[in-house]
Amino acid sequence: MILEQYYIECLSHASYLIGDPTSGRAIVVDPRRDITEYLDDARRFGLTIEGVINTHFHADFVSGHLELTDATGAWIGFGEAADTDYPIRRLRDGEIVSLGEVELEILSTPGHTWESISVLVREHPGAVPTAVLTGDSLFVGDVGRPDLVNLGDGSSTDLARAMYRTVHDTLMTLPDEVVVMPAHGAGSSCGKNLSTELTSTIGEQRATNPAVQPMSEDDFVALITEGQPAAPAYFAVDAAMNKRLHPLLTPERTIPALSPAQVRVELAAGTRVLDARSVDDFAAGHLRGSVNVGFDGRFAETAGMVAEVGEKIVLVTYPGEEQDAAVRLSRIGSDGAAGYLTVDRDGVFPAELTDLVETASRTTVDDLERMLAADAVTLIDLRNPAERESGTIPGAVPIPLAQLRTRLDQVPDGKPIVLHCAGGWRSSVAASLLRAHGFAAVTDLLGGYAAWAEFTDRRAAARS
Q1: Are residues 349 and 392 in the same domain?
Q2: Active-site annotation holds for 421
Q3: What local confidence, expressed as pLDDT, does residue 194 receive?
Q4: Is residue 379 part of a domain?
Q5: How far apart are CA 418 and CA 412, in angstroms?
């Protein structure tokens, strides 16, 4: 049996190729839009991709089911509750999808969404299952959040109760040795306590996953409905895109280089400029009005927080990263990248644009302490609710980064603004976003809350 996992850090997303080498038949589960890797591996293994299964309507990325169907003629499968404007194979609970010797059994596992399914994989008919592809139902260390409903019928509590039954009556009844292969890992906004491990087993999860321990249904509902990370606004857009026909992402798609004159025109027109360089290089010099979404972090997801899906975008990147950046944007349905400008790691912009280059100051914990003591600052905490449980800086206003663009009217503007996250990456995004929207005297905290906690611990130790 062939069972390949494809994991992309930028979205913490896992997809799978399941194949029977004897029959040469294969299925892809939860694919991303750039499908070349699946096609290449299918050829390498001598497989024909005959079906594409989505475990649910994904909200955090646009699935590649349409691209794969266009390339291979494969059918598209969803759970029975799915509703789309393109033909699908409705996969019912208990249904067997045979690839020859290898067979897949469909498990109805609602809770993250109503149409959610898991895929049980057997190497031979009747054999003990090898693995279960759990989508966003069971993660390593958590279960899927129930508040991203994208069928529009049912409250978060209803889905949470459905998830309770999914966990205890379906997934935890599987043998301990079954390998758990979810659709997401740590960093995903589809859950709150996801592990960095990309696979596990039912037995390991039974022993270590807090969300699957014996508890009452009401306690389970409270556990999984509280403290979830803020959902980016683009999630609703992507979930809707995954239900309907939309333009395909073609493998040969590229974006053009822009001349300095063209970049100037785009800036003057108000085009969103995303600077994908590092936080330090952005602070040292960037184009006025650009937003720093570093390529070294959660680039695609964060870009979806600061720019509308479909919005025209100009990219500023290091040489050689521009096309990959455009692909990553397309993974969340943002196909509006109009072109790029590259800047070497020495940070020198073209001479024709030097009048538009500015620096960004950053605040140290010592400076922040003095500003707080003088009541001379508005401090904004960009972390998610679960992160704030570890501690907060007194007086900080909580606005998660995912919500900042839609809550700009709630940002106090009477004092200098300092923003902080956990370590300093998200705060650079947020500070540049505020400056791009006309806020003055905006900085972010070097080192984030981690630096503040270390500072206060060190001071407390010195006093003791």
Answers
A1: no
A2: yes
A3: 83
A4: yes
A5: 11
